Amino acid sequence: MDRTRHLDDRGLKQAYVTTMFEVIAPRYDDFTRCFSFGMDSGWKRELLDTVLPRLAPDARVVDLACGTGDLALALAARVPRGGVVGIDAAENMIGLARERQHQAGVTNCRFEVGDMARTGLPDASADAVTVGYGLRNVADLRAALREIARILKPGGLMACLDFTKPEPLVWRFLFLEYLRLAGWLYGMAWHRHGKVYSYIAESIRRFVTPRGLADASRWAGFEIVQSDRKLLGGVCLLVGRRIT
């Protein structure tokens, strides 16, 4: 696929992203740990530490762009009388999540292939929605945020962790160049194709800054509860509450 053409065209972007994640699914968890020098685990723990205390045992939670299911399964342990739905566009990711669920013996969680901008879930059906590295990959950020607001109950919580475009221009250049080069090297080493992971730098280049993510979330009907910048704005943990 022509990466530039697909990423610049909203109608084509999802096809490119889904195809890429189908390819990288078996090495995805290894890649995120290596690529972030282990920091990814800490960032996800911080997301969970923010969300879990706010969940009742019977809460309903949706984990979008769930990948191999790490966040969804951790959330399921906190809501034994409730449940978690994990949604991802890549069938291979969902397959790995279901394997992990079976091995862990978790029964109050299900995984589905789907589009996070069109989940098909009922209005106001979720107490919380989490998104790990997913908003950057949607064709229309505002459409995805509107969908999250739609499925959340009034007062419900959205927590998203994602790469964002740093605001300082010098750091932005250095950050994206590192990601481009490192992604190319990992892609060649693991998949014999440099473009597989260098996609990350290109997706961030087309994404928003942490401030832009907060602004888009407010537009979609969220009150910003928390916005923590990591790596000088290269990563953002944003928590919003759906305004009633």
Describe this structure in words.
The termini are far apart. The protein is built from ten helices and seven strands. Strands 3-2-1-4-5-7-6 form a seven-stranded mixed β-sheet, with helices on both faces. With 244 residues, the protein is of the alpha/beta class. The chain has one domain: 3-Layer(aba) Sandwich (Rossmann fold).
Question: What key phrases describe this protein's structure?
Answer:
10 helices, 7 strands, single chain, 7-stranded mixed sheet, Rossmann fold, alpha/beta, 244 residues
Layout of SSEs?
Elements (H helix, E strand, L loop, with lengths): L2 H6 L1 H15 L3 H8 L3 H13 L8 E5 L5 H9 L4 E6 L2 H14 L4 E5 L12 E7 L8 H11 E12 L5 H23 L3 H11 L4 H10 L2 E9 L4 E8 L2
Parallel strand pairs: 1-2, 1-4, 2-3, 4-5
Antiparallel strand pairs: 5-7, 6-7
